[in-house]
Specification:
By secondary structure, the chain is of the alpha/beta class. About 35% of the residues lie in helices and about 20% in strands. The chain has 2 domains: about 90 residues, no CATH class; about 180 residues, Rossmann fold (3-Layer(aba) Sandwich).
Length: about 325
């Protein structure tokens, strides 16, 4: 767990260079074991096959590394989830694709202000964001490798590609769009800068790219051992400064970025999840049971306390323009 790892200051073996600055000097700031993550997922009602875990079953500890040069945090990028992992997760986790989120509305407002005509949503899932974008007057397109989710999106009238971005990039007639969106995807990929470059290649001249990832400084800190935030699910952790750096390295002009506003009911769910996962990791649950976070969340919402935490929400976002 975090305290023990911080004391030991374990240094990663060579070949684990930072995905942003390229410097190979990471220090471990936390670590868990594969068996702990397996137990945590089971407490959330999800079990994975050995095929889904892959090489992680042969790893003694899964580290969260911090780059000694730029501060970017990441795990071993080779520990990113395989196809079996995501197929099994989506089959067992009924609300894996969100029906709505702050980044959806923010991007639609952005598109309307700039009078953009069409959008490509990379990792579109069942098309929830595309539904909202179409209501706002945009022509909607998506990329989704999950066949079941892609079929749902198509059934609603969205044009959905079911192939890897690199295959689409190689086309002579590669499609182009005014806006490309990337919701809660970048933290899953092993080469984030290259992935942003691929996404940017679908933009028309002066087109825009919008990104949202889980926030490293917000409400998610209430549940640091949420297995969603660890391999094989997530392999990178993001701040606004990291999104700026990644975009610039991908040849994009950073326009703006920030964090979502606080939502006290999300804070309540993270508090409760932290306590639920305690048996998997061996820490003591926070006091108060379910009643305390429920009372705090309701009271803070009624009193408008969320205004005091304007950037303590679940996601960090960025908007870029093709340069």
């Amino acid at each position: 767990m975090k305290e023990a790892t911080a004391r030991s200051q374990a240094v990663a073996p060579g070949g684990n260079a930072c995905a942003l600055c390229g410097v190979d000097s990471p220090v471990s700031v936390d670590a868990v074991t594969p068996s702990q993550l397996q137990a945590a997922w089971k407490l959330m009602g999800v079990s994975f096959s050995p095929e889904a875990w892959g090489e992680l079953l042969r790893v003694e500890r899964i580290h969260l590394w911090r780059c000694g040069n730029c501060g970017f945090e990441y795990s071993d990028l080779k520990q990113a989830g395989n196809g079996a992992f995501y197929e099994e997760l989506q089959r067992q986790f009924s609300n894996y694709y969100p029906a709505d989120s702050t980044e959806f509305l923010r991007a639609v407002n952005f598109a309307q202000e700039l009078q953009l005509k069409d959008v490509l949503d990379v990792g579109c899932g069942e098309g929830a964001f595309l539904d909202l974008a179409r209501k706002a007057g945009l022509q909607t397109h998506g990329v989704e490798l999950n066949a079941k989710a892609a079929a749902v999106a198509r059934s609603k009238g969205h044009e959905v590609y079911d192939e890897l971005l690199e295959s689409m990039v190689a086309r002579k007639n590669q499609p182009r769009f005014d806006l490309v969106t990337l919701w809660q995807v970048l933290e899953h990929v092993s080469e984030p800068v290259n992935f942003l470059e691929q996404c940017a290649s679908f933009l028309r001249p002066n087109g825009y790219l919008a990104v949202a990832v889980p926030s490293e400084s917000g409400v998610n800190t209430l549940c640091p051992y949420n297995p969603h935030c660890w391999p094989p699910h997530h392999v990178t952790r993001w701040r606004v400064k990291d999104l700026r750096r990644a975009g610039e390295k991908a040849g994009l002009k950073f326009l703006t970025g920030g964090n979502d506003p606080a939502n006290m009911y999300h804070a309540r769910s993270m508090w409760e999840l932290h306590n639920k996962l305690a048996p998997a990791f061996g820490y003591s649950p926070r006091p108060g049971g379910k009643l305390f976070p429920k009372i705090v969340a309701a009271g803070a919402t009624r009193l408008g306390a969320t205004k005091l935490l304007p950037e303590w929400g679940p996601s960090t976002f960025a908007f870029y323009r093709a340069s």
